[in-house]
Amino acid sequence: MTRSLSTDVAGAAMAMHEAAGVRCLMGVGVTGITGRKGQLTVTLDDGTELRAATVVVGIGAVPNDGWLAGSGLTVENGVVCDEYCRAVGTTHVYAVGDVARWFDRARGAHVRAEHWTNAVDQAACVAHNILHPTNLRAYEPVEFVWSDQHGWKIQVVGDTTGSAATTLLGDPTADRRFAALYADGQGLLRGTVVVNWPRVMVQCRKALREGTAWSDLEPGLRAVVNAASRPETKA
Ligand SMILES: Cc1cc2nc3c(=O)[nH]c(=O)nc-3n(C[C@H](O)[C@H](O)[C@H](O)COP(=O)(O)OP(=O)(O)OC[C@H]3O[C@@H](n4cnc5c(N)ncnc54)[C@H](O)[C@@H]3O)c2cc1C
């Protein structure tokens, strides 16, 4: 998870898995799976053999763009598009969803996203652009994905890739909730990973939508954290 959530959050996630009894083997590949249904042997490249009743393979995906070869479109790991999700070099061809690699202004690069929120938000943007060719809207999403693991509701908003978290709220090992926040060189919040903490999530989503400076956001977040750490009082 270091690629998508950065090393600090990935470490916390791995500790969470291990605390739940999951054994994580890192830095080792699979050379083969033999046996039959219910009685499988997985062989690793260091010679280790693991017995398994069930094997789940999660090795990523590639966009199904082969059928576009020879179409005249620029196809390189998906359909290459401008910031309006319009296939480069065309005026009336758009791409949406997993197969679209559009120019994301915020990152200054072509990006492909593989999740439902992206497919839905991008479709709305492209529908607008088809209907309003003289008033095109750039696709500038605040990405949002989530996952539920061992009682952790992990929510990821914006861009969390690359660097370490700027600020960590809460203690991943001691608390059942924490948040990692990522600001850029200009002090703008760029992304956040929130675990089991809906009030922090609401603040961060709003800040990301509005492009709030980290210094403006921090007092509000501190208030949420302080409120959470006050002992509960009975009415
Ligand atoms: C195992 C798995 C788990 C996932 N879990 C999550 C999750 O928890 N949360 C999340 O946000 N996202 C998840 N995703 C990603 C999510 O499913 C995709 O991002 C989303 O479905 C993309 O939508 P899409 O319309 O771009 O593509 P798709 O849903 O893949 O639809 C493309 C369609 O085009 C069809 N097609 C392909 N080629 C042709 C052709 N030549 N002619 C006609 N039809 C064609 C395909 O059959 C398919 O029906 C998961 C994906 C996988 C594989």
Automatic annotation (TrEMBL):
Chain ranges of the Reductase C-terminal domain: 145-213
Q: Supply the source organism for this entry.
A: Streptomyces albipurpureus
* PANTHER family named in the record: APOPTOSIS-INDUCING FACTOR 1 (PTHR43557), RIESKE DOMAIN-CONTAINING PROTEIN-RELATED (PTHR43557:SF2)
Q: Which residues cross the membrane?
A: none
Signal peptide location in the record? none
Q: What is this protein called?
A: FAD-dependent oxidoreductase
On the tree of life, the source organism's domain of life is Bacteria
Q: Which UniProt keywords apply?
A: FAD, Flavoprotein, Oxidoreductase
Q: What is its cofactor?
A: FAD
Report the residue ranges that make up the FAD/NAD(P)-binding domain in this protein: 3-123
Enumerate the SUPFAM superfamilies for this protein. Answer: FAD/NAD(P)-binding domain (SSF51905), FAD/NAD-linked reductases, dimerisation (C-terminal) domain (SSF55424)
